[in-house]
Design brief:
The complex is a heterotetramer of chains A (about 500), B (about 120), C (about 500) and D (about 475).
Chain A (H helix, E strand, L loop, with lengths): L1 H20 L13 H25 L6 E7 L2 E5 L3 H24 L6 H20 L3 H20 L4 H31 L13 H25 L8 H8 L2 H11 L1 H14 L1 H4 L3 H23 L3 H22 L2 H32 L10 H4 L1 H15 L5 H16 L4 H28 L17 H19 L1 H13 L2
Antiparallel strand pairs in A: 1-2
Helix pairs in contact in A: 1-2, 1-4, 2-3, 2-4, 3-4, 3-9, 3-14, 3-19, 4-5, 5-6, 5-9, 6-7, 6-8, 7-10, 8-9, 8-13, 9-14, 10-13, 12-13, 12-18, 13-14, 13-17, 13-18, 14-16, 14-17, 14-19, 14-20, 16-18, 16-19, 17-18, 17-19
Chain C lengths: L6 H16 L4 H29 L3 E5 L8 E5 L1 H21 L3 H4 L5 H20 L3 H20 L4 H32 L4 H14 L3 H18 L9 H7 L2 H27 L1 H6 L2 H22 L3 H22 L2 H30 L7 H4 L2 H4 L1 H15 L5 H14 L5 H27 L16 H19 L1 H15 L1
Antiparallel strand pairs in C: 1-2
Helix pairs in contact in C: 1-2, 1-5, 2-3, 2-5, 3-5, 3-11, 3-15, 3-21, 3-22, 5-6, 5-11, 6-7, 6-11, 7-8, 7-9, 7-10, 8-11, 9-11, 10-11, 10-14, 11-15, 13-14, 13-20, 14-15, 14-20, 15-18, 15-19, 15-21, 15-22, 18-20, 18-21, 19-20, 19-21
Chain D lengths: L1 H17 L5 H24 L6 E5 L5 E4 L3 H24 L6 H20 L3 H19 L5 H31 L13 H4 L3 H18 L8 H4 L5 H28 L1 H4 L3 H23 L3 H22 L2 H32 L15 H15 L5 H16 L2 H29 L18 H19 L2 H11 L4
Antiparallel strand pairs in D: 1-2
Helix pairs in contact in D: 1-2, 1-4, 2-3, 3-4, 3-10, 3-14, 3-18, 4-5, 4-10, 5-6, 5-10, 6-8, 8-10, 8-12, 10-13, 10-14, 12-13, 12-17, 13-14, 13-16, 13-17, 14-15, 14-16, 14-18, 14-19, 15-17, 15-18, 16-17, 16-18
The chains are: A mainly alpha (about 500), B mainly alpha (about 120), C mainly alpha (about 500), D mainly alpha (about 475).
C-alpha cells in the first residue's frame, strides 16, 4: 500500500514543492538562481519516485487492492496493481527518469526551469496513479490530472504557438475525457461497481434491457479515450503539440502520456467485456477508424518536412497499431498490441530524444537541413537508425515482434474483410514508416558528393543527453531479442491477474 | 317590429334625434356645433320623456273640478324630470359656452383640433 | 329612527351648503371651512360605519318622509359609509398635499372658488354614494362633472382649458347615454327608485317580455359610466386633464371622481339590475375584454410617456382596466377585488400625484424625466413616497397593490373561461407597471449634479411631508391588514342585495 | 428566535448609517461582529431546530407570514450564513476604493436578513414576500456606483425580477386556490379533488411560475440582467449574483416544484419536458456566451448562468436523486463561484484591470490569487477531487437513473458545458501564467497580492472546495435525507 501511495504522492508533493520553492520571485524578493540544487533535487526526486514505483511493482502489496478514501459512499478512490498496469507502469518508470535526465541539459537555456521540472514530477506521479488505479473513477481522476499536469509542459516555451498548442491539447483531451465521462455515468448505473474486473462488469439484466444504448455508450467512450491516443478524427492536437514542446517533453508525451489513452481503452474494454462488443457495429467502426489512422498517419508523416512534426504523425499512426490490435479483440492481437506499447514507447522516446539532441545542438528543425548530420553526431544518428528499424519492424527489434503478433491475430480473427485488409494496411504503413524515418539516416551519413566537409564540427551532445538515448535504444532492441519475457508478462495480463 | 316602430313614432324620432346629437357632439370639431349637438341630444331625451309621460286624452295633473281619480291625469313625474333635465343641460351648456369663449379669446379659433395643434406647438 | 341615520343626508347637505358659503368668504376662511367640512363629513361617515357594522342592517332614509315609490330616498349600508369615509380621507390628504402649490397654480382671487368646487365635488360624490334614486344620481353625476371640470380649468393655462373642454365633451357623451338608458329603464319599469326598479326588472326577466330594451338600457348606462370613468378606449381626455391641472385636482380627479362613477355602476349592477341578471348578459364579457385591453394599452402608453404626471395619468387607465376586469369576471370575488382595488388605487394614485409634484418642484418645475434625475435626493420625502407608491402599483407585498392583485388573481382562478386570459394579462401588466414605475424610481435616485438645484429639508414642507407619511401609512395598512377591509366589502356587497 | 436572525441584520443595517463611527475600523468591527454573531445564531437555530412554525403576521384568508426550519431551509440558510461573514470581511477591503460606504453596508446587511427570510419561510406567500423584498434591497447595491451603466443595469435587473415575480405570483395563486395549504410540505400540497380536470392549466401555470422564479436563476431567455448587473461592486456580484440572489431563484423553484406543486403531479408531464429543455438550453447557452465574453466579471456571470441551470436541471429531474444533485450543486457551486468572483474582485481591486486580455502575466505577480483562481476553475470544470466533480456526478447519476431520454441528453449538455467551462476558465489561467515570450514584465511591476482581509476568505473557500471534493459523504448524506423528505 505505501509504496503505491508514495509513488503517486511523493512526486506530486515534490513537484508542488519545486513549484513553490523555485517560483518566479515577486517584486522585492530575491531571486533564487541556484540551478544546481534544483537539478540535483529533481534528479533525486525522479530516482526516488522510480524506486517507489518499482518497489510497488515488486513487493506485490497492491495486488489485492485497497481503498484510499471515499469521494462519496459509492465512489471509492481505489488502487490495485494488475498486470496491464504493471506493463504501463514499467514503461513510465523507465522512460520518465531518462527523459528527465536528458532535460537537464536540454533545458539549460530555457526560462522558468523549475516550472518545467515541477510539472514533470507532477505528471510522473499522476502517471503512476493512472497505472495503479483500480476502478474507473480513480482512473478518470488521474486521467484528467494527467492532461492538466502535462499541459504546462507543452506550453513551456511560452511562445504564442506553444500556448495555442497547449490549449488545443487541453481542449481535445478534455473533450475526449468528457465523452468518456458520459459513458462512465451510464456504466455506473449498469454495473455492480466500477472496479476493473476481467471479462466485463455489466449486469446481465442491463445488457438485456438497453444493450443498444450501451453499445452507443461504449463507442462514445472508445472515441473519447481515443482522443488521447490520437485516433482519427481527433488526432489533430498531436502534430500541433509536439513540435512546440521541449523535446524531452515530446518524448514523454509521445511515448508514455498518449499511452494513457491506450490504457484507458483497455480499461473500457475490460468494463464492457470483449464478449459484449465482439461482432457488433462498434467493433467494425472502431477497426475502420484505427486503420484509417494507421495509414493516414504514416502518409502525413511521409509528407512532413519538420522533423518533430513528422515524429508526431508517426505517433498517430503507431498508436493506432495498438488500438487496432485491441479492436480485433483476440488474444494474439492483444499480445501484439501490448508488445507494441512497450516497443513503441522505447523507440519513440529514443527518436524524440535524438531529434531533441539534433535540434539542441544544431538548431535545425527540418529534415532537409540535416544533410550530413551523421558526420557531426554519429552516435546520435546511429541510435536514431537503430530505433527507426525498431519502429519499421525489422527483426530482431521489438517492433517486429509486436507487428508479427498483430498481423497474426488479425488473420486468425475471422473477421470479414478486415482479417486480411488489416495486415495489408499495416504492411503498407510499415513501408511508409521506412520511407519517412530512414531518409534522415541516409542523408545524415551520405550527404552526397557536393557536401562541404570542411565546415564539419564535432557536435556530439554531452553525456547527460547521449546516455539516455543509448539506454532507450538498447532497450528497444532488447525487448526484440528477448520477447519471451515480455510475452509471458503480457500473457499474464491477458489471463487476468 | 315595424308596427311597433310606427306606433311609438315619438320614441323612434327621439332616438334618431339622440343619435344625431350624439354624433355631432362626438365628431364635430367646431365647438359651437358640438354644443348644438349637445342640446339636440338632451332635447331628444326630453322629447322621449315627454312622449312617455303623455297619455292621449288625459289632462295635465292639476286638480280641477275635484276630479281626483288618477285615470284622468297624465303622470306628472316625467314632466318633472324634463324640467330638472333642462336645468341641468342649461347649466352645462353655459359652462361649455364659457369655456369656448376662453379658448376663442386665447386661440382665435373654434376648431378643437386646431387648438390642439397650437397647444402642441406651444410645447406646454 | 336613530339620529345617526340622518348623517348621510347631513353630510351631503353640509358640503353643499358650505360650498355656497365659501363663495362669500375670503380664501383663507374658505380653506378652513373646506377642511372642517371634509373632516366633519369624514367623522360622520365613520360614526355611521360603526353604527352600521353594529346593527348589520342597511337603512333607507326617506327624503321629506314620502314613502316609496313616490319619495326620494337615501340608502346607507356598510359599503356606502365606508366609501364615504374613505373618500373624505383621500380628499383631505390630497388637499393637504397640494395646498402649498395652490398659490402658484391658481390666481389669488379665485382661491375661494376653488374651495367651492371642492365642496361641490364632495357633496356630489356623497350623493352618488348614498342615493337610492336613479334620477338623483343622474343630476349629481352632472354636478360632479361640472365641478370636476371646474377643478381642471381653475388653473388657467391653455392646456387645462382644452383638457376641460375635452373632459366635458366626453363626460357629456357619457351622461347623455346614461340619461337615455335611464329613461328607457324608467319607461320599462315605471320607477326611479333603485329597489323598485329591481323588482320590476326581476319580473321582466321572468316574463321574457321587453328583455331586449332592458338589455339596451343597461348597456347604455354601462357605456355611459365607462366613458365617464375613462375605461380604455374612452380615455383620450384623461392624460391632459390629470396631467396639467393642479396637484390636488389631479389627485382628487384620478382617485375619487372616476371612482364615484364606478361606484355608481356597482350600485346599478347590484341594486338596479341585480347581480345575477347582469352576469347573464354579454355586457360583462365586453367589460372584461376592454378591461384587459385597458390594462395593457394604458401601461404601454405610460411607458412611452416622457412626462411624469402624464405617465401617472396613463397608469390610471391601466388601473381602471383592472377594476373593469374584476366586473367582467362576473363573480362575487371579482367584485370584491374590484372594490378593494378602488380603495387601493385611490390611495396609491393620489399619493403618486402628490409625491410627483414634490419631485418636479425641486427639479426646476420640469416634469420631464431627464430633469428629474436625482430628484429624490433633493426632496427625500417625496422620493420615498413616490417609491412606496410605485411599489404598491407594481404589487409588492406589504403594500395595498399586492392585496388587490392577490384578490384579482384568486377571483380569476375561479372563473373557468376567463382564468388564463386574466392571469396572463395580470402578469404582463405587472411587468409593464414595473417597467415604467421602476424606471422613474431609478431615475429619481440616479445621481446628478446636485449643485444645480437646491434641496428641500423637512422644515420647508412639514405639512407636505406629514401628508405623505399618512398616505404611505394608508397604503401599508391596506396592504398589511386587509382582512377587515375585505370583510367589510363583502358585508357591504351582501347588504346591496 | 427565528425572527431574530432575520431582524438582527435589518437592525444592524439601519444602524450603520445612523451611528456616527469615528473611525473606519470601528464600523468594520461592529459589522463583522454582528454578522458573525448572526451566523452563529443561524447555525445554532439550524442544529437545534424544532418542527414548530413561527407565525409572524396574518394576511388575508388563510395566508400568513410564518417561518419554519426544515431540510431545505437548513441547506440554504446554512450556506448563506456560512458565506456572509467572509464576504463581509472581503467587502471591507474592497470598499475602501468606493464611495457611499454606509449606504452600501446598509443594504448589504439588509440583504442578509432578507435572504435568510427566503430560506426560513414556512409557506409560499412568505417566501414570495421576501423574494420581492430581495429584489428591492439589492437594487441599490447594483446601482451603487451610480454610473450610467449601473443605472441601466439596475433598471434591467428590476424589470426582469419584478416581471418574473409577477409570473411566479400566478403560481402562488394556483397553490392558494388548488392546494390544501400554502405551507411547504415535501411532496406538494395540491389537492387532487380540486385539481381534477384542470391538470393542463395547472401545468401551464407551473411553467410560467418556473420561468418567473427562473428570472432570478437567470434561465434563458431571461438571463441578460445578470451579466449587466456585474457593474456592481464585486462583493455584491460575488455574494449576490453568484450566491444569494440567484440561488434564491433556484431555491424558490425547488420549493415550488417539490414542496408546493409536488413531483407526483409534475413528473412525466409535458411541463417537465418543457422546463427541462429550457434548462438544458441555458446550460449550453450560458457557457457559449461565457466563452465569447471578454470582460472578466461578465464571463463569470455567464458561467453562473450556466451553472444555475445545472441546479435547475437537477431539480426538474424530479426524483429524490435529482434533488440531491441540485442541492449539492447549489452548495458547492456557491463556494466555487464566490471564490472565483473574489479572485476576480481582488484582481480588479489591485490592478484596476477588467478585461481578460489585460490579465497577461499577472499570475506571477499575484500567485496566491491566481493559484486559488486556478483551483476554483478546475473545480468548476469538474475535475475529480474537487467539489464540482461531486455535484456533477450526482446530477448526472440522477439523470441516468431517471431513465428519461431527455435527461440523458441533459448529461450531454452538462459535458459540453464542462468542456466550454474549461475553455473559458483555463484560458484566463493560461493567460496569467503564460503571457507569451515577448511579454513586457515592466507593465506589471508594482502589482502584488491583496492583504489578508481579501485573502482569508479566498483561502477558506479553497479549503472548502478541496474538502467537499475529497470528503463529501456527510453532507451528501444530509442532502439525501432532505430529498427523502426526512428532515
Amino acid at each position: 500500500m505505501f509504496p503505491i501511495l508514495l509513488s503517486i504522492f511523493f512526486p506530486i508533493a515534490a513537484g508542488v514543492f519545486l513549484l513553490i520553492r523555485y517560483r518566479t520571485p515577486l517584486s522585492g524578493e530575491k531571486r533564487n538562481t541556484d540551478r544546481k540544487a534544483l537539478l540535483l533535487l529533481t534528479g533525486c526526486f525522479l530516482v526516488i519516485t522510480a524506486a517507489f514505483a518499482v518497489a510497488a511493482l515488486l513487493t506485490g502489496t497492491g495486488k489485492d487492492g485497497f481503498i484510499l478514501f471515499n469521494l462519496t459512499k459509492t465512489l471509492p478512490v481505489y488502487f490495485r496493481i494488475d498486470s496491464v498496469g504493471t506493463l504501463f507502469s514499467l514503461l513510465a518508470v523507465i522512460v520518465l527518469p531518462f527523459a528527465g535526465f536528458f532535460s537537464f541539459e536540454y533545458m539549460k537555456h530555457e526560462e522558468r526551469e523549475s516550472r518545467y521540472y515541477g510539472f514533470y514530477l507532477l505528471a510522473f506521479g499522476v502517471l503512476n496513479g493512472l497505472c495503479f488505479a483500480g476502478n474507473l473513477i480513480t482512473f478518470y481522476l488521474f486521467f484528467e490530472l494527467l492532461t492538466l499536469s502535462s499541459m504546462p509542459l507543452v506550453m513551456h516555451s511560452g511562445s504564442k504557438e506553444a500556448v495555442m498548442a497547449g490549449l488545443k491539447y487541453l481542449f481535445y483531451s478534455l473533450c475526449g475525457a468528457y465523452a468518456a465521462l458520459f459513458g462512465i455515468y451510464f456504466l455506473y448505473r449498469n454495473c455492480d461497481s466500477l472496479t476493473f474486473t476481467a471479462g466485463g462488469a455489466l449486469r446481465a439484466s442491463a445488457v438485456a434491457e438497453h444493450g443498444g444504448f450501451l453499445l452507443v455508450t461504449a463507442f462514445v467512450m472508445l472515441l473519447g479515450f481515443g482522443v488521447k491516443a490520437g485516433m482519427f478524427p481527433m488526432h489533430a492536437w498531436l502534430p500541433t503539440a509536439h513540435p512546440v514542446a521541449p523535446a524531452p517533453a515530446s518524448a514523454v508525451l509521445s511515448s508514455v502520456i498518449v499511452k494513457a489513452g491506450v490504457l484507458a481503452t483497455i480499461r473500457v474494454l475490460g468494463m464492457f467485456g470483449t464478449n459484449f462488443l465482439r461482432g457488433t457495429w462498434v467493433q467494425t467502426a472502431w477497426i475502420i477508424l484505427t486503420l484509417i489512422t494507421v495509414f493516414m498517419g504514416s502518409l502525413l508523416a511521409y509528407r512532413e518536412p519538420v522533423l518533430k512534426k513528422r515524429l508526431a504523425y508517426s505517433t498517430v499512426s503507431q498508436l493506432s497499431y495498438i488500438l487496432f490490435g485491441l479492436a480485433v479483440m483476440n488474444e494474439t492481437s492483444r499480445t501484439g498490441a501490448l508488445c507494441h506499447v512497450l516497443a513503441h514507447g522505447f523507440v519513440k522516446a529514443a527518436l524524440f530524444l535524438c531529434a531533441g539532441a539534433i535540434i539542441y545542438k544544431t538548431g535545425k528543425t527540418r529534415v532537409g537541413e540535416m544533410r550530413g548530420i551523421g558526420k557531426e553526431m554519429p552516435l546520435t544518428l546511429w541510435c536514431w537508425t537503430i530505433a527507426s528499424l525498431g519502429l519499421i519492424g525489422i527483426p530482431p527489434t521489438g517492433g517486429f515482434v509486436s507487428k508479427w503478433y498483430l498481423a497474426l491475430g488479425s488473420l486468425k480473427s475471422g473477421l470479414p474483410v478486415f482479417d486480411v485488409l488489416g495486415p495489408v494496411i499495416l504492411l503498407l504503413s510499415a513501408l511508409l514508416t521506412a520511407g519517412y524515418l530512414l531518409p534522415l539516416t541516409i542523408y545524415g551519413f551520405f550527404p552526397g558528393a557536393d557536401y562541404d566537409y570542411g565546415s564539419l564540427q564535432k557536435k556530439e551532445p554531452c553525456k547527460l543527453m547521449i546516455v539516455p538515448i543509448l539506454i532507450l535504444t538498447i532497450l528497444s532492441v532488447l525487448i526484440g531479442l528477448f520477447p519471451d519475457i515480455i510475452a509471458s508478462t503480457i500473457d499474464m495480463a491477458i489471463t487476468g491477474r | 317590429m315595424g308596427q311597433n316602430l310606427f306606433a311609438n313614432y315619438g320614441e323612434a324620432v327621439s332616438a334618431i334625434l339622440f343619435c344625431i346629437g350624439f354624433t355631432n357632439l362626438l365628431l364635430q370639431t367646431n365647438l359651437i356645433k358640438k354644443i348644438i349637438g349637445l342640446n339636440i341630444m338632451d332635447s331628444a331625451i326630453y322629447l322621449f320623456l315627454a312622449e312617455k309621460g303623455y297619455i292621449a286624452g288625459r289632462v295635465a295633473p292639476i286638480v280641477v273640478d275635484n276630479v281626483t281619480s288618477t285615470k284622468a291625469y297624465i303622470n306628472p313625474i316625467p314632466s318633472g324630470l324634463v324640467l330638472t333635465g333642462i336645468v341641468v343641460s342649461v347649466s352645462v351648456t353655459a359652462l361649455m359656452l364659457s369655456l369656448t369663449i376662453r379658448l376663442y379669446t386665447r386661440y382665435h379659433t373654434l376648431d378643437l383640433d386646431e387648438i390642439s395643434t397650437q397647444l402642441k406647438r406651444e410645447g406646454k | 329612527m336613530n339620529f345617526i341615520c340622518n348623517f348621510p343626508f347631513f353630510s351631503i347637505l353640509l358640503s353643499l351648503f358650505s360650498g355656497t358659503i365659501c363663495s362669500v368668504l375670503p380664501a383663507k376662511a374658505a380653506k378652513v371651512v373646506n377642511r372642517a367640512v371634509i373632516i366633519a363629513v369624514g367623522l360622520m361617515s365613520a360614526v355611521l360605519l360603526l353604527y352600521l357594522l353594529s346593527t348589520g342592517e342597511p337603512f333607507i332614509y326617506w327624503m321629506g318622509h314620502f314613502p316609496a315609490p313616490w319619495g326620494n330616498e337615501i340608502r346607507a349600508g356598510v359599503l356606502e359609509a365606508g366609501m364615504a369615509l374613505f373618500f373624505c380621507m383621500i380628499m383631505y390628504l390630497s388637499m393637504a398635499g397640494g395646498a402649498h402649490k395652490l398659490p402658484g397654480e391658481v390666481v389669488e382671487s379665485k382661491h375661494n372658488l376653488y374651495y367651492i368646487l371642492v365642496n361641490l365635488l364632495l357633496s356630489s360624490l356623497l350623493a352618488l354614494v348614498y342615493t337610492n334614486d336613479m334620477f338623483t344620481a343622474y343630476v349629481f353625476v352632472e354636478i360632479n362633472t361640472i365641478s370636476a371640470c371646474g377643478l381642471i380649468m381653475i388653473r388657467q393655462v391653455g392646456r387645462t382649458i382644452e383638457a376641460a373642454v375635452r373632459y366635458m365633451i366626453m363626460s357629456l357623451l357619457g351622461s347623455g347615454l346614461l340619461l337615455f338608458g335611464l329613461c328607457i329603464m324608467y319607461d320599462l319599469t315605471g320607477h326611479l327608485l333603485m329597489s323598485n326598479i329591481k323588482e320590476s326588472v326581476g319580473l321582466i326577466m321572468a316574463n321574457g317580455e321587453y328583455q331586449i330594451p332592458l338589455i339596451v338600457s343597461v348597456a347604455l348606462m354601462c357605456i355611459g359610466l365607462c366613458i365617464k370613468s375613462a375605461l380604455f378606449p374612452f380615455h383620450a381626455w384623461l392624460p391632459d386633464a390629470y396631467g396639467y391641472s393642479t396637484v390636488s385636482s389631479a389627485a382628487i380627479l384620478s382617485s375619487l371622481v372616476s371612482k364615484g362613477y364606478i361606484f355608481l355602476l356597482i350600485k346599478i349592477i347590484y341594486r338596479v339590475i341585480g347581480f345575477d341578471i347582469f352576469n347573464n348578459t354579454r355586457i360583462i364579457d365586453v367589460l372584461f375584454v376592454f378591461g384587459l385591453m385597458g390594462m395593457i394599452f394604458g401601461s404601454l402608453s405610460a411607458i412611452k410617456e416622457k412626462d411624469i404626471r402624464r405617465m401617472i395619468a396613463f397608469s390610471s387607465v391601466a388601473q381602471i382596466g383592472y377594476i373593469y376586469m374584476g366586473f367582467g369576471m362576473g363573480t362575487q370575488a371579482g367584485m370584491v377585488a374590484s372594490v378593494f382595488h378602488i380603495l387601493s388605487h385611490a390611495a396609491t394614485k393620489s399619493l403618486l400625484f402628490v409625491a410627483a409634484i414634490g419631485l418636479t418642484d425641486v427639479s426646476g418645475g420640469s416634469r420631464k424625466f431627464i430633469d428629474l434625475t436625482g430628484a429624490a435626493y433633493r426632496n427625500k420625502w417625496a422620493g420615498v413616497a413616490f417609491t412606496a407608491g410605485s411599489l404598491s402599483m407594481v404589487g409588492v407585498p406589504l403594500f395595498s397593490g399586492f392585496i388587490s392583485k392577490l384578490l384579482f388573481a384568486q377571483a380569476a382562478v375561479q372563473v373557468e373561461g376567463k382564468m388564463l386570459a386574466s392571469l396572463i394579462v395580470l402578469g404582463i401588466s405587472t411587468v409593464l407597471n414595473a417597467i415604467y414605475f421602476m424606471k422613474t424610481v431609478l431615475r429619481i435616485y440616479a445621481t446628478t449634479d446636485e449643485a444645480a438645484y437646491t434641496g428641500i429639508t423637512f422644515r420647508d414642507m412639514k405639512a407636505y411631508a406629514v401628508t405623505l407619511v399618512f398616505f404611505i401609512l394608508l397604503n401599508v395598512i391596506l396592504g398589511v391588514s386587509s382582512q377587515p377591509v375585505v370583510n367589510m366589502i363583502e358585508q357591504g356587497l351582501a347588504m346591496f342585495a | 428566535m427565528i425572527i431574530l436572525v432575520i431582524l438582527i441584520p435589518f437592525i444592524t443595517g439601519i444602524l450603520v448609517p445612523a451611528i456616527p463611527f469615528r473611525k473606519r475600523w470601528q464600523k468594520e468591527v461592529f459589522l463583522e461582529t454582528t454578522v458573525v454573531l448572526n451566523s452563529i445564531l443561524v447555525w445554532y437555530l439550524l442544529l437545534h431546530h424544532s418542527d414548530s412554525t413561527f407565525l409572524l403576521a396574518h394576511f388575508t384568508g388563510n395566508l400568513n407570514i410564518s417561518f419554519r426550519v426544515d431540510g431545505m431551509s437548513m441547506v440554504f440558510a446554512g450556506l448563506v450564513s456560512a458565506l456572509w461573514p467572509f464576504a463581509t470581511l472581503y467587502a471591507f477591503e474592497y470598499m475602501t476604493k468606493e464611495k457611499h460606504e454606509n449606504v452600501f453596508f446598509l443594504f448589504y446587511t439588509l440583504t442578509y436578513g432578507v435572504t435568510l427570510g427566503i430560506a426560513l419561510a414556512a409557506n409560499l406567500l412568505t417566501m414570495y414576500f421576501f423574494y420581492e423584498l430581495l429584489t428591492l434591497v439589492t437594487v441599490p447595491l447594483v446601482m451603487h456606483t451610480l454610473t450610467r451603466e449601473a443605472v441601466l443595469a439596475s433598471r434591467k435587473y428590476l424589470y426582469y425580477s419584478l416581471g418574473g415575480a409577477a409570473f411566479a405570483f400566478l403560481g402562488l395563486i394556483m397553490v392558494i386556490v388548488y392546494g390544501s395549504t400554502t405551507d411547504f410540505i415535501f411532496g406538494g400540497v395540491l389537492d387532487p379533488a380540486k385539481t381534477a380536470g384542470k391538470t393542463n392549466v395547472l401545468l401551464l401555470i407551473y411553467v410560467m411560475a418556473f420561468m418567473g422564479f427562473g428570472v432570478k436563476a437567470a434561465v434563458c431567455p431571461f438571463n441578460s440582467w445578470l451579466p449587466q448587473a456585474g457593474v456592481a461592486p464585486t462583493p455584491v456580484t460575488a455574494l449576490l449574483h453568484a450566491v444569494a440572489v440567484v440561488k434564491s431563484g433556484a431555491f424558490a423553484i425547488i420549493r415550488l416544484t417539490y414542496y408546493s406543486f409536488g413531483t407526483d403531479f409534475l413528473k412525466g408531464t409535458w411541463a417537465q419536458d418543457v422546463v427541462m429543455a429550457v434548462v438544458m438550453f441555458t446550460i449550453v447557452y450560458g457557457c457559449s456566451r461565457a466563452v465569447k465574453e471578454t470582460h472578466l466579471k461578465r464571463r463569470l456571470a455567464y458561467s453562473t448562468i450556466s451553472n444555475l441551470s445545472y441546479i435547475l436541471f437537477g431539480a426538474v429531474i424530479m426524483t429524490p436523486l435529482g434533488l440531491v444533485g441540485a442541492l449539492t450543486h447549489l452548495v458547492f457551486h456557491a463556494v466555487m463561484k464566490i471564490c472565483s468572483f473574489f479572485c476576480a474582485g481582488a484582481v480588479m481591486h489591485q490592478t484596476d484591470r477588467h478585461y481578460i486580455h489585460e490579465l497577461n502575466g499577472l499570475g506571477y505577480k499575484m500567485p496566491r490569487v491566481f493559484g486559488i483562481f486556478t483551483i476554483s476553475a478546475l473545480a468548476l470544470m469538474g475535475v475529480p477531487g474537487l467539489a464540482g466533480f461531486i455535484s456533477k456526478w450526482n446530477l448526472a447519476c440522477a439523470a441516468v437513473e431517471s431513465g428519461s431520454p431527455l435527461a440523458w441528453g441533459g448529461i450531454a449538455c452538462l459535458l459540453v458545458s464542462a468542456l466550454l467551462t474549461a475553455i473559458y476558465m483555463l484560458t484566463i489561467v493560461v493567460r496569467a501564467f503564460f503571457p507569451g515570450k515577448d511579454f513586457d514584465y515592466s507593465t506589471v511591476l508594482d502589482i502584488r497580492d491583496p492583504n489578508w482581509k481579501m485573502l482569508l476568505p479566498l483561502f477558506v473557500f479553497t479549503i472548502f472546495i478541496i474538502l467537499f471534493g475529497v470528503y463529501s459523504q456527510p453532507i451528501v448524506d444530509f442532502f439525501m435525507s432532505v430529498a427523502a423528505g426526512a428532515v
